[in-house]
Amino acid sequence: MIESTEVIDVTEVYDVTEVIDVTEVLNVTEAIEVTEIFEVTEVIDVTEVIDVTEVIDVTEVIDVTEVIDVTEVIDVTEVIEVTEMIEVTEVIDVTEVIDVSEVIDVTEVIDITEVSNVTEVIEVTE
To answer: What domain range includes position 35?
Structure first.
């Protein structure tokens, strides 16, 4: 029985329960939660969604722009080349030569020739 009384000394080991203060170090385990942010790096798996860029194959639908061949109908605008004939209207500048027709007013001087004073007509020759 005396041996059992010695077991009472083991109750002093109860002081080890103060080691429970070490459980406060568990707060460090909360820092491990920050390492869970590393799981966000798994979001990089989303970059596999870049396979969606293969949808750019839809840009092959741009072949529809070949319908722009219809713009060849703009060849009708070549008819506008007919408007270049309007450049012929620049020939109307020749009508400025008609200013020379004002010289025809001199022919009116010929009316002066009706005057028998032909000697006066010589003045017209000047």
So the answer is: 2-125
CB atoms within 10 A of CB 123: 10
pLDDT tens digits, 76-107: 444 444 434 444 443 444 433 444 434 444 44
Angle at 63 between CA 59 and CA 69, to 5 degrees: 145
- Per the structure, the count of domains in the chain is 1
Task: Record the pTM.
Answer: 0.08
In the numeric block, which tokens belong to residue 42?
């798994």
Q: Torsions phi, psi of 102, nearest 5?
A: -65, -30
pLDDT score, position 79 = 46
Per-residue confidence at 62, pLDDT binned at 50, 70, 90?
very low
Ramachandran angles phi, psi of 114, nearest 5°: -65, -25
Give the sign of the dihedral formed by CA 69, CA 71, CA 73, CA 75. Answer: negative
